[in-house]
Design a protein that fits this description.
By secondary structure, this protein is an alpha/beta fold. The chain has 14 helices and 22 strands. It is globular, with a radius of gyration of 22 Å.
Length: about 475
Amino acid sequence: MKLQFLGATRQVTGSRYCLHADGHKVMVDCGMYQERSYLDRNWAQSPIRPREIDALLLTHAHVDHCGLAPKLVREGFRGEIITTDASAELVELILRDSAKIQMEDAEYKRKRHKKEGRKGRHPVEPLFTTRHVDQTLKLLKPVPYDEIIRINDDISAVFHDAGHILGSAMVELRAGHDDQARRILFSGDIGQTDKPLVRDPTKVTEADYVVMESTYGDREHEDHGDVDTQLADIINSTVAAGGNVVMPTFAIERSQEVIYHLSLLMHEGRIPELPVFLDSPMAVDATDIFRRYRRHFDDETWQLIAAGGAPLRFPSLQMVRSVEQSKAINTQKGPAIIMSTSGMCTAGRIKFHLRKNITREECTILFVGYQAAGTLGRHIVNGAGSVRIHGRNLPVRASVRQIHGFSGHADRPALLRWLNHFEQPPREIFLTHGDEDSALSLSAEIEKMPGWKVSVPEYQQTIDLD
């Protein structure tokens, strides 16, 4: 039995792993790389022949976990793609949106390169098209939480709630028979406890091996007060200056969580009822899916609903779908809150809003999500004096703020608490989905726990289990 690490190794995005057991190959996640220094991997041929893969299991519907599934299908994969029921609907949204963005960006680059007489680093073509997404969706198999799913005679899976986004899961693979059977747990992205909308992460008590995320493995989330107070202060100061608050958001979970908080703040009169634009067709559709899958909400949200509240609606919220509506946002007068994807500013409509507002001193660029190394978002957060957007160098004059309380990832203390629920140490912990410093720092902390073995795999490393 072997475990191959094909992504998110000593960096954050591109989550992908493959279990080799009894002649079978089962892949967990097939994510897209978003850091600039790793983009070449998106274009590389799959290191495992796609037709040899029995099944692909997706932990959740973020692009760094599912974004290359259509490329895998394009290369020949024909097995089932298994994920939770809510994730199945969200995966469709994110893959269709990703294909559309790639096709639009390829056309835009093609025209720009022709005009400038140069060639880019990567092929001026999409990784996959909407046709490949259609083929991928036919392979989707939605499954419930906490039920044993038989993949073949030797391998089964159970999906546990990860508390990260709607439908997110920890995937437990059970491989082998009798005394040779092993449980390999893939944590996916472990959420924080006591977050609105979604339930808390499942407390797992046993596994032989654990592939665990380490995004915040080297630090605690900064405590600058509660999220509502931080959000209200930033919005009110920006409104007083006459500027816009531009928020790069992830279409799934983060957008809905921000809407939840804005709704409460406006209802309580802590911020004015100014226009709030959710400028992302995918985020708009995702919000509709959240409303349909209310059965996955946590108790706190159900209490709000029972009291007559509408956690994902308020009068000044405007759902923006069309390109014309998106362009009109930047012609409107008066302060506004502009939420748009992508969350790390790597592509999509957010770049147009940044281009319009980042040079204005009265505006605020507010980050409410993790910014991976090498992304445009990370450059802005790190205090870059200028950034390159759509081929133009723009000075950063807007205020740049970040609220960490929105993070959908557990920090180091929370990750260690999650591990402490195991009744006995697994045979080995493999730390992935974190920058190298984060993973190594968390590894050092786990090694202090008696009886725990931990390692930080390298890209494409294969490890023999047993």
